[in-house]
């Protein structure tokens, strides 16, 4: 089974030491306000009139009680549109990692460099500002850098203006480090509907979901979850690849030491033999 960069690899530029941002960025983790010129990009766009959902404590947006899904909400029903990327052609695999860069990312990057593997990294805006050198390293070594919003909020709980801000601040941070604007974004928690899609399309961005989930984040946040289950998930996917009708986009995280350690164990299962 082939592992590969999701789409286009980036062109390397000179490495950055002690990078200093020219832009003044919002507080990391906060839902930011947009720049006025960004709002002009959606001014005359036909955007689906889906509701802005409320988010309960420790839970995502709540599905309609009647089970309906008029706005193709992936969170509620797994609905996808033709414009969503969520799988690869048969025989190909796209490993993706969310929430970085972090203190634990270098160990993952080292492994990928040693094995000449390329992946897609969905980076959170605040983390890019915190770790510009790691962002630059990932870029110059040929990985696909993509967006995971500024604050990692549920996107269907945000207004159209807030969605613009989440994506454009995330884009700006990556562009200031690399000189290149990312094209792809992953909605946190996979939380996307037609309203979010319309806003993102108006900004020129393409949503990426997944069709295989390692559930690796649970190893750090759920005491009942065994790290060996992550390995078991990937081993099962690799075993089923020969008869599967499609390839995979797998969701993992370089957020914790335990999730990176798991990646170093299971990535060989996805490599070409």
TrEMBL record:
Q: Name one Pfam family in it.
A: Polysacc_deac_1
One molecular function GO term is: metal ion binding
- Which SUPFAM superfamilies does this entry report, sorted A to Z? Glycoside hydrolase/deacetylase
Q: What Gene Ontology cellular-component terms does the record carry?
A: membrane
What are the boundaries of the signal sequence? 1-18
Q: Where is the NodB homology domain?
A: 91-273
**InterPro entries associated with the record:** Glyco_hydro/deAcase_b/a-brl, NODB_dom, Polysacc_deacetylase_ArnD
According to its UniProt entry, one GO biological process term is: carbohydrate metabolic process
Keyword entries, A-Z: Hydrolase, Metal-binding, Signal
UniProt-recorded name of the protein: Glycoside hydrolase/deacetylase
Native species of this protein? Answer: Hesseltinella vesiculosa
